[in-house]
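Box 4.2: Ligand-aware structure prediction
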Amino acid sequence: MSRFLPTEPPPTAKPAAARRRPVPPCTGTPHPAVKHHLDRAGASESYDPDAGHMRRRGERAGVEYIKLGATGLDVSPICLGGMSYGESDRGNHTWTLDEETSRPLIRQAIEVGINFFDTANVYSAGSGEEILGRALADFARRDEIVLATKVHGRMRPGPNGGGLSRKAILAEIDNSLRRLGTDYVDLYQIHRWDGRMPVEETMEALHDVVKAGKALHIGASSMYAWQFAKAQYTAERHGWTPFVTMQNHLNLLYREEEREMLPLCADQGVGVIPWSPLARGRLARGWGESSARSETDEFGKTLYGEADRPIVEEVGRIADARGVTRAQVALAWIVGHPDVTAPIVGATKPGHIEDAVAALTLNLTEEEIRRLEQPYTPRPVAGFA
Ligand SMILES: NC(=O)c1ccc[n+]([C@@H]2O[C@H](COP(=O)([O-])OP(=O)(O)OC[C@H]3O[C@@H](n4cnc5c(N)ncnc54)[C@H](OP(=O)(O)O)[C@@H]3O)[C@@H](O)[C@H]2O)c1
């Protein structure tokens, strides 16, 4: 039984101090807000990072389901990322798998019990949504799956071709639903913050999408914690729909989110669904090894660097000692993270889904977690652009 998937009723939460694993403080004088969090991380009493993460037993072998944040949605503790699937000559990702190669992977995910799928309007210029939508229609029951997509990225040149204006949001939800072949998504996420837009315009438009029945819930993705808090209090002040999830960048090589965003989400019962949990493959292979994706993944090249090497090597040592893959070790760390609901994994081979499911039952020891986390040093904030 995975510690991620306890039996009902949900277990009594461990004391926050025992579960929180703060990132090392930045050198120099931290921002007062950072210092506040780091100080209280070891000594909080009222703060309950598990608030909203009600877990329940699912019906399928292999995967049990948990609640997505404070919503009623049952999701697998692994979400399958749709960015890997798309026509490689559309959009920015030349490494994506075509439809014929993608479909067996999506089907495999469904068959092992994964019911949570993430994509975005921009992935392969819309073809990511088309491929995922057709596969889900053929292999899954719509009522069982939880389908998430995103809006913000530029879909065409010229005015009103991207961003989070009312005009863009109302056009893009309809475009996504058409490509996905469904009349609603379970989760509609803003892919980034749009600093050119009054937050009131964005939050009211998202609320109207929900009220129109085109999305059941809304979520957000990488941004500063103050921006997320501003959006939430704007929604609350106006009686609009708040965000229920945060899709942010978190893995053993990038833990800056542990300073502000994760404590905020835990305190507010917001589900956390990190992207690139394997650091786009870097945590799943030896240092210096590459793949077709890593050589052409321009965004990925901006996120990681030489300081990552000792962490990657430690993942390898622990994987070798246990006789499991590096991916299983790195994913076990994130599915066991006290603030994480479900990482969004990218799978380009059948073994990747097998590893992701195996990670759910790989319980790292406290000593192994310490060894994986100890080499981390503060990183520049990355991935918000
Ligand atoms: N909100 C955002 O801004 C944002 C940003 C990025 C991603 N996302 C979401 O997050 C999802 C996942 O992102 P990601 O693909 O970067 O995640 P990831 O899980 O960190 O990386 C996936 C890559 O890792 C390698 N890999 C995966 N499992 C492996 C295994 N078991 N053994 C060896 N290698 C393995 C593969 O690399 P190779 O293909 O090179 O072999 C695969 O393409 C996306 O599909 C998307 O839905 C969102």
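In the box above, the bound molecule is NAP. The chain is about 35% helix and 10% strand.
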